[in-house]
Design brief:
With 203 residues, the protein is an alpha/beta fold. The protein has one domain: Formyl transferase, N-terminal domain (Rossmann fold), CATH 3.40.50.170. Helix content is 36%, strand content 21%. It is built from 6 helices and 7 strands. The chain has helices at 12-24, 41-49, 64-77, 94-99, 120-127, 162-185, and strands at 2-7, 30-35, 53-55, 80-85, 104-108, 131-138, 148-155. The chain has a 7-stranded mixed sheet with strand order 3-2-1-4-5-6-7, sandwiched between helices. Helix 4 (94-99) links the parallel strand 4 (80-85) and strand 5. Helix 1 runs parallel beside helix 2 (41-49) and helix 1 (12-24) packs parallel to helix 6. The longest helix has 24 residues, at 162-185. Mean pLDDT is 95; it is low at 196-203. The structure holds glycinamide ribonucleotide (GAR). The site of glycinamide ribonucleotide (GAR) has 14 residues, from helix 1, strand 5 and helix 6.
């Protein structure tokens, strides 16, 4: 069994995950990138890192369920157990959630439950918080509402803007996400309700 990363954009977290997995020789490796945007920078990174990628455009399908059924078929074909959302800018729907319950993780650029959804860094700046941060959590039906696995704080300085704060947040993300995934693969983090880790995707 192995890991798929889902991403929509630049892909710096994807690259950090792949590099760490190779350096540390994880028990399950990243063998697939799923991308929902043709032309996204993450696809160039996948090519350079020699990770197979698949592009699915939701607009090509009659419904979200049809889109996700196609994605799920590929995940099954490739023996994927874990799904890591890394800048995947859409909600996971019921087809994937039900088939992959507690096998989907997400990284979010705030200390959840603060600043859920899009533009979390801008939201933190607009609110004027002194501290924001990074959260890795399980994915459920809500927007950034699933059980929290780990978090790290990031200090907001008075002269920070979206770019400078994003840089600090991403530096933290690139360490936290691989660390959490490694813990998951080595049994130091368990899925909620304990029904994800030991089972294959087909269950
Ligand atoms: C990351 O900062 C991630 O936390 C955020 O998108 C960025 C993707 O960057 N995700 C969300 O905002 C999800 N709500 P990357 O493409 O360079 O990894």
């Amino acid at each position: 069994m192995s890991i798929a990363v889902f991403a929509s954009g630049n892909g710096s977290n994807f690259e950090a995950l792949v590099e760490r997995s190779k350096r540390q020789g994880w028990p399950e490796m990243i063998t697939l990138l799923v991308c929902d945007r043709p032309g996204a920078g993450v696809l160039d990174r996948a090519k350079r890192l020699e990770i197979p990628s698949a592009v699915f455009q939701p607009a090509d399908y009659a419904s979200k369920a049809e889109y996700e059924k196609e994605v799920l078929a590929l995940l099954r074909e490739r023996g994927i157990r874990w799904i890591l959302l890394a800048g995947y800018m859409r909600m996971v729907g019921s087809v994937l959630l039900e088939a992959c319950r507690w096998r989907i993780l997400n990284i979010h650029p705030s200390l959840l439950p603060a600043f859920q959804g899009k533009n979390a860094i801008q939201q933190a700046l607009d609110y004027g918080v002194r501290w924001t941060g990074v959260t890795v959590h399980w994915v459920d039906e809500g927007i950034d509402t699933g059980p929290i696995i780990d978090q790290k704080p990031v200090l907001v300085e008075p002269d920070d803007n979206v770019e400078s704060l994003q840089k600090k947040i991403q530096f933290v993300e690139h360490n936290l996400y691989p660390a959490v995934v490694r813990k998951l693969l080595t049994g130091q983090v368990s899925p909620p309700e304990g029904d994800g880790g030991g089972k294959g995707e087909q269950d």
